[in-house]
Amino acid sequence: MSIHSTAILLAGGRGKRMESDVPKQYLDLCGRPLLYYSLRTLLASSVITDLVIACADGDRERIQQEAIAPLLADLAKSGRTGEEEKRKAQEKLRGFAAAGEERCGSVLSGLEAITWPCDYVFIHDGARPFPDEETLRRLFDAVQQEQAVVAAVPSKDTIKIADENGYVVSTPDRRFVYNIQTPQVFSYELILKAYRLLREKALAEGAQGGWSAAPLIRELGITDDAAAAEKMCGQRVRLIESSYRNFKITTPEDMDQAWAIAMELRETWDASLLQISVE
Q1: Which member of 74, 124, 229, 247 lies 3.0 to 4.6 Å from 235 by CB, making a disulfide possible if both were Cys?
Q2: Which residues of 184-223 are buried (b: 16+ CB within 10 A; e: fewer)?
Q3: Residues of the domain holding 90
Q4: How far apart are CA 202 and CA 190, in angstroms?
Q5: Hey, CA dihedral for 27, 32, 33, 36, is it positive or negative?
Q6: Mean pLDDT throughout 63-75?
Q7: CA distance 7 to 215
Q8: What's the N-to-C CA distance of the chain in angstroms?
Q9: How confident is the model at residue 266 (pLDDT cuts 50, 70, 90)?
Q10: pLDDT score of 277
Q11: Each residue of 12-50: pLDDT tens digit?
Q12: Can you tell me the distance from the alpha carbon of 247 to that of 223, in angstroms, rounded to the nearest whole number?
């Protein structure tokens, strides 16, 4: 019996800290929009069977034209296997889900858009362009045992906990401090239950309209999917080794590092095509 894993690619952010009029998922990165890179990796992954993009309704055509169409064209050039790779990507790409006002709303929208067989869900931020296949495979192997796993890397810095006035309260042992990334991967039924319970609780406490921006969610400290599973379902979450390259594009300075990695990837992809073409 085959295992079905759906990736939800979150592409609804506006990137206020990027100091740009262009949402960061569309920023040019070595000739392609930033979103292109994570989309290509997820669609090419051996552990992802389906993918849905959560974005604003008005952005669907833009994503289709600026990310999906160039990606399919690039795959079609992959030597003898090009058309087959393109066909597989088209089959995996299920379509779009409406982004919410906040991340929680976008995730639940993506979860509720899944009408096909699904055992596990990979939830990934479109602002992280460089997930890698090795990490995806480790997450896939682990989630079948743990039901809830997240990509993470050990913190390189000493962390200080401060009080409301900015004075140091404590210093956690750095051996146990991690920077959390995406993908965050869960049993589909588990994470769907967690988010539906969260929405129900937020609405019961008087949230209007955009439930995912309710004060309750901030009070509970639900800033990622793992926290939703922990708080709403009592689920233990396992950290899985990732890569420091899988960083989130947040400020203009991040783009310099991203360009270097993107150029390396594009050269690798182009070299691969050249090698196939001359064999």
Answers
A1: 229
A2: bbbbbebbbbbbeebbebbeeeebeeebbbbebbeebebe
A3: 5-278
A4: 18
A5: negative
A6: 95
A7: 28
A8: 36
A9: confident
A10: 33
A11: 876 666 666 788 899 999 999 999 999 999 999 999 999
A12: 17
| pLDDT surpasses 90 at 241 | yes
> What is the pLDDT of the chain when averaged over all its residues?
92
Give residue 16's pLDDT: 64
The CATH number covering residue 202 comes to 3.90.550.10
**Distance separating alpha carbons of residues 135 and 145, to the nearest angstrom:** 16
User: Which tens digit of pLDDT belongs to each residue from 112-130?
Assistant: 999 999 999 999 999 999 9
**Count of domains for the chain:** 1
Token pair 């937020």: residue: 202
The Cα 269–Cα 43 span in angstroms is 15
